[in-house]
Amino acid sequence: MTPYHDGMDSPALARPLPDIAATEALGAALGAVLRAGDVVALSGPLGAGKSALARAAIRARLEAPEMDAPSPTFTLVQTYAAPDGLEIWHVDLYRLDDPSELEELGLEEAFAGAAALIEWPERAGPFLPEDRLDIRLEPAGAGRRAAIAARGQRWRERIDGLL
Question: Rounded CA gap, 103 and 124, in Å?
Fold first, then answer.
């Protein structure tokens, strides 16, 4: 990975993802390091691979490679319980009209004691925790590129596991 800055708050590390297998491998690595209280902000345009990455993280952590992990585009939130007791929230904010709607979802609960994978995090506005991992996916040729940035000490200690 190389230092990279593309509209994110601070420099990020860029990782090429030439195919879906590479995206799923990054997701599996992410799933392996998730802990209670973690927030992962997954951003990028439609079709960039946010849901694929989140599903791979969930499947890896749940040790269920064939499990169907639907995108929460219409339900907004899907929750999962890992074998070690970690609760994982997969959140898709694409249909959110205003950040104040987050109160109804109970995301503060996830931020406190679960791991939250959040698609379209920019729609959370000021409710998105500052201490988080940002992963921005962008199309790049036939594949995509991931820009990964740790926001806060919590992720700086574990970001090497995603390289």
Answer: 10
CB 150, CB 129: distance < 8 Å: no
Q: SS3 sequence, 18-70?
A: CCHHHHHHHHHHHHHHCCCCCEEEEECCCCCCHHHHHHHHHHHHHCCCCCCCC
Give me the residue spans of the domains in the chain.
2-6+20-98+131-162
Rounded to an integer, what distance in angstroms lies between the CA atom of residue 70 and that of residue 3?
Answer: 33
Question: Using CA atoms in the order 122, 73, 59, 5, what is the torsion angle rounded to 10 degrees?
Answer: -20
Q: Which CATH architecture has domain 2-6+20-98+131-162?
A: 3-Layer(aba) Sandwich (3.40)
CA atoms of 85 and 101, how far apart (whole Å) = 28
Q: pLDDT of the chain along its 163 residues, tens only?
A: 333 333 444 557 889 999 999 999 999 999 999 999 999 999 999 989 999 999 999 999 998 767 676 676 656 788 999 999 999 999 999 988 888 777 777 778 778 889 999 999 998 888 888 899 999 999 988 899 999 999 888 888 788 777 6
Q: What is the pTM of this model?
A: 0.87
Residue 118: strand, helix, or coil: strand
